[in-house]
């Protein structure tokens, strides 16, 4: 009798979890250009995209999840200010999170060369996916899109996180002063933290580190609160994600559930945070751009594709995300 009740409870939870994960918006995804070869194995590469509307105010624009779910794309309606590649090694217990600067000057299939964030603006997730694949040679299994208004809600899922600001800075775009010391990030102030670019010594490069620092703190909070080992908390997390993210339609409910459950016990130290190798900045016409170090970038992503980042890192110099007290 007890076993029957237990089995019924587990089945009921699994059914509810499936329903919550199934409520996440899906969008079709294609390859716009040559499709790279997929390295055999169970490793997974996920393209994470942070998007907003052209007026820098997500509340004023259309809902990007609805736009994606409709299966159409309005060129110029949205921008991608954040592009990250999440590689999960075959055991899904380790991996790398690699940010690619939005101003990277790259070839975009069918459009010549432009800034990386133009790919998403012009052709949505499919064109950005193909641009990143073409740039890195890495097969992208799935794409997740989060709008920045949803980012604020994401921070509320775990009750916010604490970060340290090492020196007082002023966000001149929003007239916000971040005083030196600890800050609790939840809701709107989390959004302001990860979006600041003006007033930081290294501009967008510092913003990239802030975004990674926030995600690292989120992962630590999730791990410390044992969210992924608690059925109730997992379900709550899934429920909040449905109005925060959209995923490609190949990431089915079953696959998404398996992905979440396979990462039980995943901690910040299991993930390497870094930025794609760059070779400096400059101007193309009237645009400020970032030049990528192509040989080093290709070498890095070839190692990532074969789940051998640590072997590559042992013989190459690249900056990893600093400790939390050393991020502007």
Give helix and strand order, one letter per element, not per position: HEEHEEEEHEHEEEEHHHEHEEEHH
How many H/I helices? 10
* Mean model confidence by pLDDT: 85
For the largest beta-sheet, the strand count, sense and barrel status come to: 7 strands, mixed
Cα-atom radius of gyration: 20 Å
What is the overall silhouette? globular
**Ends distance:** 58 Å
- Number of E strands: 15
Percentage of residues in helical conformation? 25-40%
The unreliable regions are 1-12, 53-61
Measured by DSSP, the beta-strand proportion falls in: 15-25%
In order across it, which strands form the biggest sheet?
1-12-7-2-3-4-13
Helix vs. strand class: alpha+beta
Topology summary:
Elements: H1 2-22, E1 25-27, E2 44-52, H2 64-69, E3 79-88, E4 95-99, E5 105-108, E6 112-115, H3 116-136, E7 142-147, H4 148-157, E8 161-165, E9 169-171, E10 176-178, E11 181-185, H5 188-195, H6 204-224, H7 231-241, E12 245-248, H8 253-262, E13 271-275, E14 278-284, E15 287-292, H9 294-305, H10 309-313
Parallel strand pairs: 1-12, 2-7, 4-13
Antiparallel strand pairs: 2-3, 3-4, 5-6, 7-12, 8-11, 9-10, 14-15
């Amino acid at each position: 009798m007890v076993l029957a009740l237990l089995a019924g409870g587990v089945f009921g939870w699994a059914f509810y979890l499936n329903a919550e994960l199934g409520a996440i918006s899906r969008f079709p995804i294609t390859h716009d250009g040559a499709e790279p070869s997929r390295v055999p194995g169970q490793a997974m590469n996920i393209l994470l995209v942070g998007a907003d509307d052209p007026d820098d105010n997500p509340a004023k624009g259309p809902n990007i999840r609805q736009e994606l779910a409709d299966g159409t794309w309005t060129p110029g309606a949205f921008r991608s200010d954040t592009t990250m590649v999440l590689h999960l090694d075959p055991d899904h217990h380790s991996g790398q999170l690699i940010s690619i600067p939005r101003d990277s000057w790259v070839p975009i299939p069918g459009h010549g060369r432009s800034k990386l964030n133009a790919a998403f603006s012009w052709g949505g997730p499919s064109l950005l996916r193909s641009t990143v694949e073409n740039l890195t040679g890495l097969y992208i299994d799935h794409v997740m899109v989060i709008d920045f208004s949803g980012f604020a809600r994401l921070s509320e899922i775990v009750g916010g996180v604490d970060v340290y600001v090492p020196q007082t800075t002023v966000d001149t775009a929003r007239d916000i002063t971040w005083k030196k010391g600890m800050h609790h990030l939840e809701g709107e102030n989390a959004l302001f933290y990860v979006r600041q670019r003006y007033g930081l010594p290294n501009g967008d490069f510092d913003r990239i580190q802030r975004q990674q620092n926030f995600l690292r703190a989120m992962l630590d909070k999730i791990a410390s609160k044992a969210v992924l080992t608690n059925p109730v908390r997992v379900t709550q997390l899934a429920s909040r994600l449905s109005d925060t993210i959209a995923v490609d339609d190949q990431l089915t409910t079953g696959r998404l559930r398996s992905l979440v459950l396979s990462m039980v016990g995943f901690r910040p130290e299991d993930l390497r945070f870094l930025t794609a190798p760059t070779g400096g900045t400059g101007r193309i016409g009237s645009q400020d751009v970032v030049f990528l170090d192509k040989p080093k970038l290709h070498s890095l992503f070839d190692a990532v594709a074969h789940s051998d980042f640590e072997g590559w890192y042992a013989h190459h110099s690249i900056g990893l995300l600093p400790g939390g007290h050393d991020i502007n």
